[in-house]
Structures are given as C-alpha cells and as structure tokens.
Amino acid sequence: MQMPRRRWIDTLLAGYFVSIWGSGYVASKVGLQYAAPFTFLSLRYVFGLCCMIPLVLVLRPRWPASRVELGHILAAGLLMHAASLGGSHYAQYLGMSAGITALILALQPLFTAFIVSRWMHERLSPRQWLGVALGLAGVALVVWHKIDIRAASWASLLAVGISLAAITAGTLYQRAFCPAVDLYGASVLQFAISLAVLAPLAWAAEGLEVRWTWQLAAAVVYQVILGSILAVNVLHTLMRHGRATQVTSLLYLTPIIAVVVELLLFDLVPTQLTLAGIAITCAGVAMVAWRKTKPAAAY
User: Fold this and answer.
1) DSSP letter at 106?
2) Does any domain span residue 202?
3) Is the dihedral of CA 220, 225, 231, 233 positive or negative?
4) What digits encode the pLDDT tens for the residues 14-25?
5) Are 220 and 47 in contact (CB under 8 A)?
6) Quick check: helix, strand or coil at residue 209?
7) Tell me, what's the pLDDT at 229?
8) What is the pLDDT of residues 74-101, one digit of tens each?
9) Within 203-243, where are the H helices?
10) Tens-place pLDDT, residues 193-208
11) Any alpha helices (H) in 94-182, and if so which ranges?
12) Is 218 within 8 Å of 8 (Cβ atoms)?
C-alpha cells in the first residue's frame, strides 16, 4: 500500500517540478530585461532569505551537525545556485538564444547517466540508454525553430557550459554527500553563500543597476518561491526517492513547458516539428523512468 502511494506522490511532485522549471525560462527572460544576471540573482537570494528566515524560525529545522556537513551543503549550494544559474543567465545576457541554452542544458541527463553508471554503480539498461538519447533528440526538435547559432559567442558557450557542469555536479553532490540534510535549513545556507558570491560580482561588473517594475518583482517572486525554494526542494526529494538518471531525465520535459507558456503568453503557436519533438521527448522520458521492480525490494 505504501509503494503505490509514494509513486503517486512522486508523480505529482515530478509534475510540479517540470512545470515550474520549464516556465522558469520565461520568468528569467522577463527579469533579465530589467536587471543584469548577477544583479537579478542577487535580488532573488535577498528575497529568498527574507522568505526563509521567518519560516525556519517557526519550523526550527535541523542545522549541520559538523563543519564537514556544513561544507558539503555550502559546496552543493554554490554549484546548484550560484554557478548553475549564474552561467545560464549570463549566457542569455551575452546574446545566446533560449533555444541553444535549453538544448545544451538538456545534455544533463546524458552526463548524469554516464557518471552514475561509471562511478556511482547505478547501471542503466539498454532501454534506458535509448530513452536518454530519444529525450535529447526530442528536445532538439522542440527548440530547433528557436536556434540561432550566430547568437552563440565563445563567451556565452563557456557560460552555459559552466552552468551544465554545475547543475549536474551539484545535483549528484548533494545526493551523495547530503542525503539526510534538512532541506529548509540547507536552503537558507545555500541562499546566503550564493548571495555572498554573486552580490560582489553584481556590484563590480554591473553596478547593481535595477529598473524597478512590477514585471521584475513578479519574476523574482515567481523564481524564488516556486522555483528556488519549492522546485529545488522537490528535485532533491525526488532524488532521495528515485534513481539519479530517472529524476534528471525529467529535465527533458522543461522545454515543452516553455513552449506551452510561450503559447499562452505570447501566442507563439508551436510548429509540427515541435509537436513531434514533444512526443519523442515524452517517449524517451518514459523509457528512462519506467523500471520493473518487485514490491518487496522497493524499500
């Protein structure tokens, strides 16, 4: 009885994560119109701390029990928040199109599959490897009409490459070294260390210039509450319940959500090629995520 219930809960959490992570591309695009990348992220983490501090005062989460555990939490936070988001935001700021950014970041499940099969003893079946490849092919079709290779400079490619490496390493790092960390306490510490790194960069490189508008405020609130707090915690919760490749394969679905959001907000009708890519991506994710297990061995 417990296993089907957990599967339903995990399915709902996965749906939430994909929806928020995918629509987050649009929210970031809006926010970057009014503040440069490091400044925009600094605003996110200031607001994030303002949201989290009252919450932890009420919930009283478990804090790191040792300097080693604290170091692991901070290292994971720098990878997941400062390096990953800083790289992807800066790539778009330098002119890289959303299509190329999404396509490169969609390589994460491939890197995750290779790492966990090589060093983390999580073997993938041929069907799962085929699903990983199909997912990437589907994403390529989804974003193909948005790709403008002329907008990809060496600097922007380096930035998005850093983002890809950081999100892959950060997800696996927290899973390996912080398996039992309290996610609320970790969020406060990770927001604080990310702000400590990004705010000086924002001041030195961007002058902390902000055009205050309600669109910027909405983007910050959306990204912090629904994204940085809830969606990231959902991701780590799913990582605890499932296998790394199965969970990260959900990232293949985020460009699909972005297409739907663009249709609703900007009336950008998807092409037949995009619809075909959506179908192929969903098939690939299903092949990676599905595995036959015996109920007695599930837990």
Assistant:
1) T
2) yes
3) positive
4) 778 878 877 777
5) yes
6) coil
7) 82
8) 999 999 889 999 998 888 788 776 666 7
9) 214-221, 232-241
10) 999 999 999 999 899 9
11) 98-105, 108-119, 126-143, 154-177
12) no
